[in-house]
Structure formats: C-alpha cells, structure tokens
C-alpha cells in the first residue's frame, strides 16, 4: 500500500495510476512464468500425445489452458479491490478510470497469455518458452514504441498503434476506445490461433 499509494500522498490525488503501472510491470514479468509450462511440459513429457487422443478439439484444449491462466490473473486482480476501496475512502476517485484501468490489465493479460501459450507450444524447454514470451513482450513494449518516435506520418502511426503501452496508457487514463479494444482482441485471437495451429501439427505429425 505504501508503494501503490504513493501517488495519493505525493500528488495529493485519489488515484490508482501508480498501482496500474506497477501491476502492469508485475504482470509483464509474471505471465511468462505462468505460461511457460502450459504446453512445453506436456511436449517434453510426451503427455501432449495422450491429451490429443482424447475426444476434445484442439480449440478446446487451447481455450481451457488460456482461460485457466486468465482466471488466475483475474482472481489476483480481484484481491486488490480492498486497496481500491481504501483509496476511494481517502478522496474522490474516478470510478470510470478505475474500471478502464482494471479492464486494461485484464485485456493486456489475455493478450500476453495467448502469446505465452503459443511460445509454450513451440518448445519443450520451459526456460526457452519464458525467454521467448518475454522477448515478444519487450518487442511490443519497447521496440515498437522506440521506432514510432523515429518515424512520422503513416509509418509512425502504425508503429505507435502496434506498441502495447500506447493502448494500455490510453485505457488507464479512463478512455475506452474501440481501437484499443480491437488491438487487444486481435492479438489475443492471433496468439490463440497460432497455438491451435501448433497443436494441429502435433496431432497429425
């Protein structure tokens, strides 16, 4: 609370801005460790073949693992609600901004989990899966953002749109823009489709 509440005591404003920022970076490093063994461990042990012989579709396998990981994140975020209540009691807080901030964390987590799930499906090594997921996260977080500042016009706008922090920061300011929602949904869906594609290859290999 002392760390997350620093924005209240230093800027004299009831806000969860610092909390959302720190939660984002916590998830940035935690989610790769959460997803690194979702499929890589089964690939290594050979149980993936047993799983694929059961009467379930590839999509059901992928969605089951994806939703289980996302549910864990949602539960963890729900446990922070007492902090929100405490901050709200200290002053007037923008509830709309709080809602969009939590939504941004959930959507970012969903996107990142889908990427981690795919990386877990392409390797038998958990550490490699972790590093691959983290590398993709750094690419979306840092590389696109840095490149966008070096280009102007259409290319600059495209690179800025691809940077995940552009959309996360927009939502944590209390703005729920369809462009941000579409961004998270597209990349989440893309990660899930790639994961299913890897399972299809293993099923018919």
- The percent of residues in helical segments reads over 70%
Q: From N to C, what is the helix and strand string?
A: HHHHHHHHHHH
The largest pleated sheet is described as: none
Q: Separation of termini?
A: 51 Å
| Structural class determined from secondary elements | mainly alpha
Q: What count of domains describes the coordinates?
A: 1
The average pLDDT score comes to 86
**Count of distinct strands:** 0
Tally the helices: 11
Rg, Cα atoms, Å:
19 Å
Low-confidence stretches: 1-6
Beta content comes to under 5%
Q: What is the global morphology? A: globular
Architecture overview:
With 205 residues, the protein is mainly α. The protein has one domain. Helix content is 80%, strand content 0%. The protein has eleven helices and no strands. Helix 7 packs across helix 8. The N and C termini lie far apart (51 Å). The N terminus is likely disordered.
Give the gist of this structure.
The chain has 205 residues and is mostly helical. It has eleven helices and no strands.
Question: Topology of this structure?
Answer:
Layout: H1 6-11, H2 17-35, H3 40-45, H4 47-52, H5 58-78, H6 81-90, H7 95-121, H8 126-148, H9 153-162, H10 164-172, H11 178-203
Helix pairs in contact: 2-7, 2-8, 5-7, 5-11, 7-8, 7-10, 7-11, 8-9, 10-11
